[in-house]
Amino acid sequence: MTTTTMRALDATTGAVRVEDVYDTDIEDLWDACTTPERLARWIAQVSGDLRVGSTIEMTFTSTWSGPGRIDVCERPHHLLVTTFAGTDQECEIEAWLTAEGERTRLVVEERGLPLDELHIHGAGWQAHLEDLGRSLELDGTAHPDGWSATEPSPHWRRRWTELAPSFKNADVS
């Protein structure tokens, strides 16, 4: 089950942290989080030079798009991407993967978000991690509702819309 927390970093910015445990090994989950074809199934189209220090372009299923710089890529445990580096919109998206037996825990934290928009991002990240779970379950096969894990999830917008009201009323620590 995906858990999401939101916290203030200062008077104007905050962070969203999402976490879940998946029924797959750490190498498979790492590939789902770093391979462009697999990322496109659950969160974003990614293009560019996929090396530390390089800039990539990302277009999320949420429709957000923009540049990111890969700052850390330590297979299979740690990834850090800075979006809009050096601007007043700069954010960090950081992921940690930890093996738990035959399963793997994924923790993702996005920092630097506008405090008054945390609920929007909290609902979005939860929907993304739920899509990741569906993508891993399908492993390239067709879903009963017609979605194939070789294309972006059609579930994101519906799920985000369901979650957004509860996140708007959630506590920010």
Task: Show the helix and strand layout.
Layout: E1 3-8, E2 13-22, H1 26-34, H2 36-42, E3 44-48, E4 55-60, E5 65-74, E6 78-83, E7 91-100, E8 103-114, H3 118-138, H4 156-168
Antiparallel strand pairs: 1-2, 2-8, 3-4, 4-5, 5-6, 6-7, 7-8
Helix pairs in contact: 1-2, 3-4
Biggest sheet descriptor = 8 strands, antiparallel
Principal-axes shape call: globular
Mean pLDDT: 91
> Which range best describes the helical content: under 10%, 10-25%, 25-40%, 40-55%, 55-70% or over 70%?
25-40%
- Enumerate how many helices there are, as a single number: 4
Rg, rounded, reads: 15 Å
Q: Into which percentage range does the β-strand content fall? A: 35-45%
* Count of distinct strands: 8
* Separation, N- and C-terminal Cα atoms: 21 Å
Low-confidence region ranges: none
SSE series: EEHHEEEEEEHH
Q: In what order do the strands lie side by side in the largest sheet?
A: 1-2-8-7-6-5-4-3
Which structural class do the helices and strands define? alpha+beta
Characteristics of this structure?
173 residues, alpha+beta, 4 helices, 8 strands, 38% strand, globular
Description of the structure:
There is one protein chain. The mean pLDDT is 91. The protein is 29% helix and 38% strand. It is built from four helices and eight strands, in the order E-E-H-H-E-E-E-E-E-E-H-H. The chain has 173 residues and is α+β, with helices and mostly antiparallel strands. The protein is globular. A hairpin with a 2-residue loop joins strand 7 and strand 8.
